[in-house]
Amino acid sequence: MESTPLIARDGDQAEAGLPVERTRSVAKGGYLGLRDMASARNDYDSLRAYVHDLVEGDFDSWFEYSIFALIIFNVFAFMLGTLVVEGSPPCKGECVTWNDKHEHFLEVFEAFSVAVFTLEYCLRIWSCVEDPEIASKGPFWGRIAYATSFYPMIDLISILPWYLTLLNIIPDVDFTTSLRIFRLIRLLKAEKYLNAFSLLGSVLAENGSLLIVTLYYSTITWFVCSTLLYFTERENPQLAEAFSSIPNAMFPTLVMLTGEYPYAEFTTAGKYIAGIIAVIAVAIFAVPTAVIGSGFVQAIQKSRGLEFTVGAD
């Protein structure tokens, strides 16, 4: 587009006798003042900054709350769609689910959700250059770097299958809808969640050696108890299938080490071993619980600038 610089008098500057440089658009046959162009540019930047603060700021805007609510509704709709409303399991393809009965409603809701999520994704890509770190890479490569980061990839994964299904590139399967559950990971963007997980990370890092030792001895206990129950219950007609081998015995033994007992028809020797497992299960949970609990207390005390003490008045 050709432009011709002119000198004109306009507004306050004209009254003051100052020249005002303007640009004439030959294609449009009109004039656009440089001051107006700068104002338009500032408005554009201000709008982008507002959008960036809206979609990437703290978890306190109406937009973030709306997206959060829509994510929850999508998850509930996905779970609700699996309910059997006609027939009784095992269905073998003969049952009617809530998804089958209200297919049109769910399709409309899914299309609406994808439209909103797509708009959100585009707004994030457009406004991401307001971040100084991203802006330092340039408008194009900065947006590419942002689009290939973790959260934007989750956003893309949640909407892309719907478009691929719409274009008949992939078949219409439940997997398409279930991918939207990955958007729940975006809840970690909320500052209060990040603080909580940062605190948990510091606790695990400071007490990692104790937890590793606990895990080591718990694993040994798991293998030993599985082996003992295999030898005592492999000939038991009622439990022979569950304890037919040591690998098969590992799952029920693991459940027992959590304090649950899926079986009660043990042999006499098996009952003694099950009793020992019940006692050991308390220690297996008590030790890491105490370690993590005390670690949280210390971390909170440190964050408040207080000294951690035990049994202090």
From TrEMBL:
GO terms for molecular function: voltage-gated potassium channel activity. Residues 61-302 form the Ion transport domain. It is a multi-pass membrane protein. It is found in: Membrane. InterPro entries: Ion_trans_dom, VG_K_chnl, Volt_channel_dom_sf. The keyword Transmembrane applies. One of its GO terms (biological process) is action potential. This is Ion transport domain-containing protein. It comes from Rhodosorus marinus.
